[in-house]
Amino acid sequence: xxxxxxxxxxxxxxxxxxxxxxxxxxxxxxxxxxxxxxxxxxxxxxxxxxxxxxxxxxxxxxxxxxxxxxxxxxxxxxxxxxxxxxxxxxxxxxxxxxxxxxxxxxxxxxxxxxxxxxxxxxxxxxxxxxxxxxxxxxxxxxxxxxxxxxxxxxxxxxxxxxxxxxxxxxxxxxxxxxxxxxxxxxxxxxxxxxxxxxxxxxxxxxxxxxxxxxxxxxxxxxxxxxxxxxxxxxxxxxxxxxxxxxxxxxxxxxxxxxxxxxxxxxxxxxxxxxxxxxxxxxxxxxxxxxxxxxxxxxxxxxxxxxxxxxxxxxxxxxxxxxxxxxxxxxxxxxxxxxxxxxxxxxxxxxxxxxxxxxxxxxxxxxxxxxxxxxxxxxxxxxxxxxxxxxxxxxxxxxxxxxxxxxxxxxxxxxxxxxxxxxxxxxxxxxxxxxxxxxxxxxxxxxxxxxxxxxxxxxxxxxxxxxxxxxxxxxxxxxxxxxxxxxxxxxxxxxxxxxxxxxxxxxxxxxxxxxxxxxxxxxxxxxxxxxxxxxxxxxxxxxxxxxxxxxxxxxxxxxxxxxxxxxxxxxxxxxxxxxxxxxxxxxxxxxxxxxxxxxxxxxxxxxxxxxxxxxxxxxxxxxxxxxxxxxxxxxxxxxxxxxxxxxxxxxxxxxxxxxxxxxxxxxxxxxxxxxxxxxxxxxxxxxxxxxxxxxxxxxxxxxxxxxxxxxxxxxxxxxxxxxxxxxxxxxxxxxxxxxxxxxxxxxxxxxxxxxxxxxxxxxxxxxxxxxxxxxxxxxxxxxxxxxxxxxxxxxxxxxxxxxxxxxxxxxxxxxxxxxxxxxxxxxxxxxxxxxxxxxxxxxxxxxxxxxxxxxxxxxxxxxxxxxxxxxxxxxxxxxxxxxxxxxxxxxxxxxxxxxxxxxxxxxxxxxxxxxxxxxxxxxxxxxxxxxxxxxxxxxxxxxxxxxxxxxxxxxxxxxxxxxxxxxxxxxxxxxxxxxxxxxxxxxxxxxxxxxxxxxxxxxxxxxxxxxxxxxxxxxxxxxxxxxxxxxxxxxxxxxxxxxxxxxxxxxxxxxxxxxxxxxxxxxxxxxxxxxxxxxxxxxxxxxxxxxxxxxxxxxxxxxxxxxxxxxxxxxxxxxxxxxxxxxxxxxxxxxxxxxxxxxxxxxxxxxxxxxxxxxxxxxxxxxxxxxxxxxxxxxxxxxxxxxxxxxxxxxxxxxxxxxxxxxxxxxxxxxxxxxxxxxxxxxxxxxxxxxxxxxxxxxxxxxxxxxxxxxxxxxxxxxxxxxxxxxxxxxxxxxxxxxxxxxxxxxxxxxxxxxxxxxxxxxxxxxxxxxxxxxxxxxxxxxxxxxxxxxxxxxxxxxxxxxxxxxxxxxxxxxxxxxxxxxxxxxxxxxxxxxxxxxxxxxxxxxxxxxxxxxxxxxxxxxxxxxxxxxxxxxxxxxxxxxxxxxxxxxxxxxxxxxxxxxxxxxxxxxxxxxxxxxxxxxxxxxxxxxxxxxxxxxxxxxxxxxxxxxxxxxxxxxxxxxxxxxxxxxxxx
Length: 1517
What we know:
The chain is mainly beta. The protein contains ten helices and 104 strands. Strands 1, 2, 13, 15, 16, 19 and 20 form a seven-stranded mixed β-sheet that branches. Strands 98-97-101-102-95-103 form a six-stranded mixed β-sheet. The radius of gyration is 53 Å and the shape is extended.
């Protein structure tokens, strides 16, 4: 299957940062090398491309030309060189010695650190298990240091388990947080250290390190003395501080190691550019001097660019990427010999748009022409590739320190400039811009730098006078002008910016100006009319700038300006020249011809001609697309100023086309013509130098050499090598071969035995001869006579992966006394001299698969040949190889061609070039021309096809892609895999119709049986036949055979399935060349089951001819927990009857069943054990009868109860606390509750049984548990568990702490209140509400009262106590009967009468309204809401209402006698013995669930007290 390499521009919405390893521009200013090479046939590149290559790509190889010299010139040259060599040899040797010493110091340091780590890892487990007290191996030592210098105290401690070390200063623990940066505590490799930076005299103290573990404590102490130099304020005991020689960072030797590459980021992300350094000497407090540049502009540290140098690396971090950050980044390091620098490009793509199709954010927002209330904002437009064109821009401003952005323009501006006015003097502002198109608004740009609105003319009004070169006197123009009140008029009124949408007026401030604050007034008129009109009526202008927006097209205007201050206005300035809005100059013309040329394996060099009309050009945008695709992608996201650009991040081997657009303030130009398609491959150049020259054999007169191919082939195949030689004591090189050597091995003849020779090699390709290699080490021409073999050579790697690789080599040229019998392979990590032999025994082949590598680690290898005499010389070390797979690496895929059935191995390369070839090998021997296999290459894919695969083809197959960075893979073809592919190949070449389902049977309605199978695909020409018991069956009476091409189904239906149909059924199918057959054995128990099902379906068919149940009785539970027995009926009519029965007793539901609806149901509300029994539904009419039974007992009853419990448990509320006079009650409200449910009450996880102390019960709406006469023993957590057979619903309440205290107090209150309510004074009956009586009659108000003890009775009239008189008699007889008799009532007796009955537990207050009318008057109507009372008869008691007024439910306390009834009313609701609660009782959040209609009312087993207290337990989510 083909792999897809995703280019970087397809990943631009991903916030990850990726790098391109193809681009690495490094130049060293301090050193240049020049070498003499052979005459090259390469052509010089053009000057433009050379400049671009110098700026953005690797430097090309330079080939100096040869100059022929005469014999005399040669002698002079030899003498001159010899003299200079003699003089410079000492200097070179000293420099080499110094470099060796420095390198050796670094190597020794690394070796010591590595040895320390290795030794620490070698601690035995036995020692670790022995407990040890802490012990200081290296104790603290005293230090005496100078002030402002650091000091480091360190110690080494051992112990098991590992001790913990704490530091103390004078007995006080050292806390680094108390003085950040002062102290630093470290623990590395068992060495504990305390670092005090910049010591002060106060740091003089005794410091101690205390080590502690489980077995004890150890302490080490040392004194630190800090001295101060004399003359610093304190006496010094050590004298003057010796002056240290300062070392400037530029005096360090700095070399760059790992450099940063071309990088890709996304807006809003972050990226770090890192370059590792080797610094000599490496001083921790003196890092190298490094500078970062972007597009040749020096960067300064800020929030947007964080820089650091130290720790062996220089780092630039851009934490908040924006397209403004795109550009060429350069790191410049100042060294002892000059500067070293490295450059690489950073691309920043657009973040995800705010809306689909919205443009990218503008960039490079800057503010110009800053004045007191005006600023001109400019920016660069974004690149639009596939988005809709931009229609305008919005400019926003924000005051510094605020996050509130204010839009400056109401309508989008269509040029990349906008004048912002109305700013406040002295305020600082930031600006940003948003682009607009028809799809939406872009993300905002990066905000501009802070600008402050100040009058630029103020600084011009200052004069500086120098006196004797030391002092400056600053004088304002105001001091020279004298006392000026009215300012002069402005001058030079003109238009500084003219666009179609606005004009910016500018002028010079007046002179003299005066000291008073100044502002300006502007007037305009049509040119030549003189009709002046003020245009800034609502704005006070403080700046000599003003944008005018409302000018008419085609009209010319003149403007004049007045200066105004508090004293008055100046004369008008001279009118400006006529100003007219002009049509926009427009975008530049399209760039000219675009030419793309090869650069590297992942980049292309693009250059183009500048537009004919530049029109203030800002730069260019370059777009690209894959050849054949219609989708363009942006190559850069920030306008590029030059007419050449290197496009990076392309897919190697892919073809691309490019186009260019010019950019200015008006937007983007038309696209240029597209370039020709170009394939991404390295530029054609001469190859780099070969390396690794090694001696393979010597016979005394000739030497056989080998070398390694260049790292860079120059973009074309290397076709020749040239070798030069010289004596080791000579400077003259001589050519060895005139004819090209095509292999990397050569025998040099005609040598002098015993002489030392040096050799160098040059490689050549189509571009010419490359640079020579470095001279080899001197080699002595001495015949080899040892019996052991010589070294193997040409070590190479294949199939490099994260944990493995394959090493290959060639056999030694010198075999020794006997033939080579095998090879030993050694491996070491890069930089290490410790080799590990990978082969226990010598291998007899010249390859080895190395496994167990660590990904990302670098290794080197060597090979030693073995013969009967022993082990020979080791080969030259291989090149260091990193255990890491190439990006996009694919493996070999084994498969079978779906059309031809051929077995093949296929490989797709992740990169390729024009000169690349696929080289297939078996067991790492090139296959070449072989009749057993055929290779075919297409693009990046190569296929190895087997002609007649068999066991001889088993083995390890590998493929290598030449002229790449090691693209290769292997696959081992095993016997099992080959057999599997051969079976698939046979199936393709001898096709079988694939079946989705084999032959099967299905019993249909009426008892018909259908035999069927389904093929994956059938054509219209398919043929088939059914065979039953070895006899073909065809369609006929009772048998139907058919097929469906669309579904691939072939079927046979038998109308009458009987015992005679037992046997074997087979279907044979032919469809073109493909065949298929499927059989079904239908005998024995399988046949009996099918026959029984067919007979059942036949009977069912007969049953369904009349009314019948389509679904028999089943039960459901509704939301209100009503159990419904339901069924579905079919084939019914209006005359069909439906009856319900329970135990043969008919049930007549409230709602008659409606059979025409197709469903009937019987509700069983308040389901419980009483509903046990067998229920029956009978359906009948003249066509027949059908019956359905449903037994509610046993498991079925439990299932219904569980269904009810599931509903009830899900609806159960949290436990609610309710206090009663009897005790404390916990209640759980739910949709329905019955005692048959599996509910368990628990107290502290212990099950509670119902008893006199703990009563358990419930109603239809809730379950409750009451604690009678509670005590402290009943404190704790209570819970109820409702089980529905599947899960348990638990609700809990913590009755302890404050909850129990409050509940217990409430219980005592209610208990007292109940007792008081029972015994308080009250009116039992006898008093009416309203009495109407005629004048002169007698009125008797009599009632029965009760209370224990006997209550007191008081009568009131109009809230005044009634005393017993002759006219009004008050009596209270037997403690039960109270009466008020008024003889001969008069109209003055009308009013509101009331009786107050009260004892110590409370009382009751009853009111009676009495109306007296005169004889002959109409009897007044009673008040609304009162019963109509008959007129009282003389000496008779008024007739009370039929039902006396109910007694008040709330007792009333006994008021003092002085109190009036009005004051008593306010206390009527409080019992005498119970205090008033401070706050109302909380009401539970969830009210009592109300049963839904039509569920009948349920009889309550016990009264449901109102809920008043909510459980403190938080509700379940």
